[in-house]
Amino acid sequence: MTAVLAEQIGRPDRARCRVHRDAELQAWHELLASIEGDEWQRRTVCDEWDVADIAGHLIGQAEDVNRPLSFPRRYRKAKRVYPGVLRIDAHMMVQADEHRGTPPERLRTEFDGVWGKATRRISTEPAVLRRMSMTVNGFRMNLGYVHDVLLARDLWMHRDDVCQALGRPFDAGPYAAELVAQVMYDVIDGPWWGERPAVEVELTGAGGGTYQLGRGEPVGRAAVDVVGYMRTLSGRDDAPAVTGDPAATEAITSCRMPF
Questions:
Q1: Start and end of every Mycothiol-dependent maleylpyruvate isomerase metal-binding domain (predicted)?
Q2: Would you say 149 and 136 are in contact if contact means Cβ atoms under 8 Å apart?
Q3: Which of the chain's termini has less CB crowding within 10 Å, N or C?
């Protein structure tokens, strides 16, 4: 299979981003409806969070979209409550904190309500607002990118976290290949790949594909499960099962980026 040059992928338009987001919201609606009893307290790969905390964090993400003052309030609170934690991570911890202890039925209702409003709002927000930018982990990004690309990715990756915690198979969904392609584009478009050599990586499984990361002639090729590699890139798993040329294997397993 011919490798797609990751640096040439580009961005989907707003309408397509809403398709991605709405598909994830439907998948989350079904997942939350299926969680019972003490499954809400199952620990997840996300450090201190259980399943209910991830739902609370995601509700907080939508609230930050819907309420203009929510993000700066939580950002200030994060610095005060978690002074030793990376600010954006502390912000997400505050989102989960503020919903901890919410009964499951209310978590389900609030999730559907705030995300229904958020996805409509994102689709109609004015261009001047979308051009507003922020710096996260030293990387500058505008609000349109956060809302269109990162929120759908966050929903997708956390859905895998919850499925893992529950011991259930993860259905990557009908648009997984497009979400993953955006990750591969970001690896190259941002500072994350750095000075690593050009390589080809075959991402196997639903949502996979073959990509060239880096510029110039590839030094080798490696293969890895697509969801497993997303876990690795996001810092969830430092030991993915990768096969291929040593130089390519080293390059792809050592790269990390914020999700």
A1: 23-162
A2: no
A3: N
Report if residue 2 sits inside a domain: no
Residues 58, 182, single domain; the answer is no
- pLDDT tens for each residue of 148-157: 999 999 999 9
* Final residue before a domain boundary, out of 114, 137, 166: 166
> 122 and 85, same structural domain?
yes
The helix (run of H) or strand (run of E) holding residue 5 is strand 4-5
- Residue 99 domain-assigned (yes or no): yes
- For the chain, the domain total comes to 2
Q: Are 130 and 146 in contact (CB under 8 A)?
A: no
- The pLDDT of residue 125 is 93
Residues near 138 by beta carbon (within 8 Å), at least 6 away in sequence: 191
Same domain, 112 and 202: no
Residue 244's domain spans which residues?
175-254
| Rounded-to-integer distance, Cα 238 and Cα 86, Å | 20
One domain for residues 162 and 182: no
Structure tokens at 144: 């349109």
The tens digit of pLDDT for each residue in 134-167 reads 887 777 889 999 999 999 999 999 999 999 999 9
Q: Which residues of 117-132 are buried (b: 16+ CB within 10 A; e: fewer)?
A: ebbeebeeeeeeebee
Query: Mind listing the pLDDT tens digit for each residue in 28-55?
Result: 999 999 999 999 999 999 988 999 999 9
Q: How far apart are CA 161 and CA 171, in angstroms?
A: 12
Q: Which of 145, 166, 187 is the last residue in one of the domains?
A: 166
Would you say the pTM of this structure is higher than 0.85?
yes
